[in-house]
Design brief:
Elements lengths: L4 E8 L2 E6 L2 E18 L6 E7 L1 E2 L5 E2 L18 E5 L6 E3 L6 E10 L10 E8 L5 E5 L2 H16 L17 H6 L1 H7 L3 H14 L23 H4 L1 H13 L3 H20 L21 H22 L3 H22 E2 L4 E2 L4 H9 L8 H14 L8 H12 L4 H8 L7 H6 L26 H10 L2 E3 L8 E4 L9 E8 L2 E10 L2 E8 L4 E5 L10 E4 L2 E8 L3
Parallel strand pairs: 15-19
Antiparallel strand pairs: 1-10, 2-3, 3-8, 3-9, 3-10, 4-7, 4-9, 5-6, 11-16, 12-13, 14-15, 16-17, 17-18, 18-21, 19-20
Length: 553
């Protein structure tokens, strides 16, 4: 059953500014998707406009120039993100739209005749697919807490029966945005039915040759030249993650033929097992990365998922064929782009180092060297990121999972430009479309394409990972990381088996680490390298465990 789209939260104005007796500006303190309800008394024929936006001009009025780039009407006949009300003049009247939603934090009320409004005259309703929350992060670091909340608000703002890119400007089902954020989505919300429905849309939109548009659903747009592997790999990556998180094979079974057609098309179009079909590392800070390297990596990921699915479904011939194909793609990428002596991919950008490392392309014996070079690159930037969307998905994971967890942590809590934390340090309540607050294009203030940070908190700090051998958290892999300067942290995830908890508190140099393993589950705990202890791994049955630990001298 698909979770309905509802008005889930109600916001009263944090602040109302009266610019005149006919212009009022309301600030709800939170960027959101939704609608507003106006209660007003005025004379008959009064025309009131409710203009919704994410930003203000210096004079205090609502500024929509960051979001109306594709819809700037030349007159007032079709205003953007604006409701128009004509009063009957019969006492207090109330208006709330029923057939649209907007993306906004601020609303400017403009009246053709004087009216009197107060903070309670306008109410905002946060509208989205009402998916139950299953994950929670809480820590002693305000940047972490605010980033987690902002990520979730951005995710929900962009969940309207299917995942969208932004709630104000396009409202489109951009495929890349959705799979970059799929782990963040599933650690925080029980959204499997939304994705099952959307995957059915994928199968509907797929052309007979296997090609998918990079916007789904589409009215015909999106089958262009760049709708390639880094975006439309949703068809493989999303059902695979549903399998990992829920242990449910049905999405993979339903999509199997579609994944196969898609991989077969990519194989036909590839040259020497490599491809540059895709959009590349969209909206980077400054460094530009090899599109052939990143698109070929996603080609590998899709072939690998297809081969693993074939194995699960007992399709032996397909398993043998596509596992061989995946291996050949991996070898071709490393032969062309990996310098085995230096451990550097291509020109060595953060994206070029992290994408093959996170997605399993890097040879086992080279992982630490590649990760070390990546960490050096991050340190050279003063623990700032220099990536676009593909690097933002891979960067923290590549570091955390390959011996550079401290660098990942320092990058995640960075609050100066360019970083995730810089957004919330400057007052953002959702995630943005551009690292640069002063950028002049790609400047929506409510986007999910950089949303991996929310999922990484569960993995890179909480250490909660599904086990591909026992999916759905039947067996849990626990690899927490405890930074010296993070005094308290807890990650809670309500799996199909029950509550999983991984958290710690530091008091006077002593660390108390607590784990909860739900009924009918087991876990393997790997303590981090920076803590003292003889046990590299500890097997846990269901139950609650408390460990007294300390840092290595």
């Amino acid at each position: 059953q698909l979770h309905p789209i509802r008005s889930v939260e109600t916001y009263v104005a944090r602040r109302m500014t009266s610019l005149s007796d006919s212009v009022y500006v309301f600030d709800f303190g939170q960027n959101m998707s939704g609608v507003t309800s106006l209660k007003v008394t005025g004379e008959k024929g009064t025309v009131i406009r409710l203009k919704h936006g994410e930003r203000l001009y210096s004079n205090g009025r609502v500024n929509t120039s960051n979001i109306d780039v594709y819809h700037r009407p030349v007159d007032d006949s079709d205003p953007f993100q604006t409701d128009i009300i004509i009063l009957k003049g019969q006492g207090e009247e109330e208006f709330m739209p029923k057939f649209n939603y907007k993306g906004f934090r601020y609303v400017e009320v403009i009246s053709s005749h004087p009216i009197k409004l107060n903070e309670r005259s306008l109410t905002a309703y946060f509208v989205h697919s009402d998916v139950p929350q299953v994950g929670f992060i809480q820590s002693s670091d305000t940047i972490i807490n605010r980033l987690w909340r902002a990520t979730n608000k951005a995710y929900l703002s962009n969940l309207m029966g299917y995942p969208t890119d932004c709630p104000q400007r396009e409202k489109n089902g951009w495929t890349g945005d959705a799979h970059f954020a799929i782990e963040t989505a599933l650690y925080n919300y029980d959204g499997i039915t939304v994705y099952e429905k959307w995957l059915a849309d994928h199968r509907d939109e797929q052309q007979p040759n296997g090609v998918l548009p990079d916007i789904i659903p589409t009215g015909g747009w999106g089958y262009g030249t760049d709708n390639g592997l880094d975006w439309t790999s949703t068809i493989a990556i999303i059902p695979w993650n549903l399998y990992l998180f829920y242990g449910d094979l049905k999405p993979l079974t339903d999509c199997y033929e579609a994944i196969k057609k898609y991989v077969d098309y990519a194989e036909r179009k590839s040259i020497g097992r490599l491809t540059d079909w895709g959009r590349g590392d969209w909206v980077p800070v400054k460094s530009h990365s090899s599109k052939e390297l990143t698109s070929s990596t996603y080609f590998y990921v899709d072939a690998k998922i297809l081969s693993e699915t074939a194995k699960l479904l007992g399709k032996k011939e397909d398993y043998l064929y596509y596992s061989k194909l995946a291996e050949e793609i991996k070898q071709a990428i490393n032969a062309k782009y990996l310098n085995y002596e230096t451990g550097v991919y291509a020109s060595g950008t953060q994206t070029e180092q992290s994408v093959p490392l996170m997605w399993g392309v890097t040879p086992e014996h080279m992982k630490r060297k590649v990760a070390h070079n990546l960490a050096c690159k991050v340190r050279e930037c003063g623990f700032h990121l220099d990536v676009g969307v593909l690097g933002a998905k891979a960067l923290l994971n590549a570091l955390s999972e390959n011996g550079e967890a401290e660098t990942a942590y320092r990058l995640a809590v960075q609050d100066t430009y360019p970083s995730w934390g810089n957004w919330v340090a400057n007052g953002a309540t959702t995630l943005l479309e551009n690292w640069d607050l002063n950028a002049t294009r790609d400047i929506s203030d409510n986007h999910m394409m950089f949303g991996e940070i929310g999922g990484w908190l569960y993995k890179g700090l909480g250490g909660i990972y599904p086990d591909v051998k026992f999916p759905g958290f039947k067996h849990i892999i626990l690899k927490p990381y405890v930074p010296r300067d993070l005094k308290q942290f807890e990650a809670t995830y309500h799996s199909s088996y029950g509550k999983i908890y991984s958290g710690w508190e530091q008091v006077n140099g002593k660390i108390t680490y607590k784990v909860i393993v739900p009924p009918n589950s087991t876990a393997t705990l790997y303590l981090p390298d920076n803590l003292s202890g003889d046990d590299k791994s500890i097997e846990l049955e269901s139950g609650t465990y408390i460990f007294d630990l300390k840092f290595k001298e």
